[in-house]
Description:
By secondary structure, the chain is of the alpha+beta class. It is 19% helix and 31% strand. It has 5 helices and 8 strands; from the N terminus they run ααββαααββββββ. The protein has helices at 2-21, 29-45, 121-126, 128-131, 134-138, and strands spanning 84-98, 109-119, 159-165, 171-177, 180-193, 211-216, 234-242, 255-268. An 8-stranded antiparallel beta barrel has the order 1-2-3-4-5-6-7-8. A hairpin with a 5-residue loop joins strand 3 (159-165) and strand 4 (171-177). Helix 1 (2-21) packs antiparallel against helix 2. The model is unreliable at 1-54 and 143-152 (pLDDT under 50).
Amino acid sequence: MQFQLLLLSSLACLTSWATVEARTTPTWFTPFQSYVRDAKDAAQGLSSTPTLSPAVCTALSSPATSMPTAASSPLPPPSPGLTVYHVAIGHGTQNYSCPSVTNATATPTALGAMATLYNVSCQAALAPSTLAHVPDTAAQGEKIDPGQTLFPLGPASTTSGHHYFTDATTPTFNLNTDNGDLGVIFSKKNGTTAAPPGAGTGSDKSTAVPWLYLKVEVPPGQTADTGNVGAVKEIYRVNTAGGNAPATCAGLEGTNFTRVYSAEYWFWH
């Protein structure tokens, strides 16, 4: 019931905001309208759902829960015996550098990412087709609501943590917040595939970063924190929107810069 109320309340905000934005007809408005339609259908079809407040949604254990896969070149599947226990939307920036002030043809150097993570575990289990629209929409937003809710998911989508890089090759996920203690997770990239054709762009016109398969690996000098749920083993970044750097440093020589992105993160243990 809470999820139904969430979707209906989100629809009210979305419809009101969409009326204003439609006057300028941005390029992302059509998928935004699809999100509104899907959210309405999902809300009307749900009558009794698990609570949204826990960081781990009981509905994730359903065999029907399915993580998105890339049709053309799938990432490796989760290892046998693992189950998904948390899903989050990440919204933030991919960070880059063009250190040379004279080399316009150089390729930008990736400096990692910084993002806030928002709990969408129940949405992933109960309304995956609706959730699939969220990264495209979120990547177009300049700001996140200061009340720590992710437009357009509504107030039940609380902050579940933060994503950053401990060093140049260690994506890190700190999932310890006032909303739950899920641990601090260090990882290494073990697989990548290009975002599907038609993937969403960022508000800065950046194209979608690749989908990723990460394995948990604690770097030297760090200590694992498994939180109160259990040790995460693998993480997937899917349904990406925005975040890619331009092909060269032309016009960006001697600068550090960012590109807006959003994505779904699936945590398996």
